[in-house]
Specification:
The protein has 323 residues and is of the alpha+beta class. It contains ten helices and twelve strands.
């Protein structure tokens, strides 16, 4: 090998070494950025709520279709040892199809709670936490749940302010102030965390809890749009740190990162929504042990939920078989 070839080989080795070094610096810098953002969010979040009673959630195995069903619960702990859930939702994400669905369960829905009397469905959480609520939903509506996430409302407020310091745009349809801690006037406006939480919790109008559920679904869709923006993606590590003290879940950190990656890479255009009970399938009743409740046609709602989450039934009816 002549000297020219030797010099060329040395230059090539130096070039490769420089590229490797630059890549290493980028990886270290990116890792440092993620840790710094996460730590900043964690420091700003505060103490959060007590998670000593974390649930042993016996979630089902994710099926071959890969659809993931998560029980989402919103609570206002206020330091109480026990509380009822203000918000009960089932979120489904299909990573293969890039589709997301959201089911809101009215908290006054009258159901059979395993090993207890019939009560409002939010009483199941009060009596036995997320696991008893999972059992209740499975028994009454036949839905398989894989994970749960319990979020304190204070955490929701901080996440909104971290994600969108200038607020989230919402078209407020009417004046709102009763029992929500803020005062809102009609019109398109940017709502901060406290205002957006108040908007989502308001129910002092003709629609009552049904109107509240509609607004919650609207808010989640608006947050989804902000989360998948360039601004939102760069803030993900800080958001995770911000929400950590206010969330209790059986989803591991690696699973969260995997789901977030899939969600961002294959983002659903819209989140499809439904409410249980479905329209025309319930009556307003009152019982001495449970108060005012929604007495629902369980079979009709069970079938509607199954079709919404899993598609039209493939079961052939006896009439069809005869044809």
């Amino acid at each position: 090998m002549n000297q020219r070839q030797v010099r060329h080989k040395k230059k090539k080795k130096k070039k490769v070494a420089r590229v490797f070094f630059l890549l290493l610096l980028l990886i270290i810098g990116f890792g440092g950025y993620i840790f710094y953002q996460y730590y900043t969010g964690l420091q700003a979040a505060g103490e959060g709520f007590d998670k000593s009673g974390a649930s042993d959630f016996a979630g089902a195995e994710v099926g071959e279709l890969g659809k993931i069903n998560v029980l989402l619960l919103g609570v206002d702990s206020r330091g109480e040892e026990k509380s009822r859930t203000d918000t009960i939702m089932i979120a489904q994400y299909d990573p293969k199809e890039g589709k997301a669905k959201l089911v809101s369960i009215m908290r006054d829905t009258y159901v059979e709670i395993p090993d207890y009397k019939n009560y409002k469905i939010n009483t199941a959480y009060f009596l036995g936490g997320p696991e008893l609520l999972r059992e209740t939903l499975e028994k009454n509506l036949g839905v398989d749940l894989h994970y749960y996430a319990l979020v304190d409302f204070k955490g929701f407020q901080q996440v909104v302010d971290t994600l969108a310091p200038n607020g989230i745009e919402i078209d407020v349809q009417q004046s709102m102030s009763k029992n929500i801690g803020v005062s809102l006037e009609p019109g398109v406006q940017m709502l901060d965390g406290a205002e957006l939480l108040g908007y989502a919790r308001y129910r002092a109008d003709a629609k009552g809890d049904f109107g509240r559920v509609e607004r919650q679904q609207e808010v989640i869709n608006a947050l989804k749009d902000e989360l998948i923006s360039v601004n939102g993606v760069t803030k993900l590590p800080k958001l995770v740190g911000t929400v950590q003290p206010y969330i209790e879940t059986n989803v591991s950190g690696s699973e969260v990162l995997g789901l977030l990656k899939d969600f961002i890479v294959n983002t659903p255009e819209d989140i499809e929504t439904m409410t249980i009970p479905v329209e025309g399938s319930y009556t307003n009743e009152s019982y001495s042990h449970a108060g005012s409740v929604l007495e629902i046609d369980m079979e009709e709602n069970k079938a509607a939920l199954d079709e919404f989450l899993n598609g039209p039934s493939s079961v052939v009816t006896s009439d069809s078989e005869q044809e």
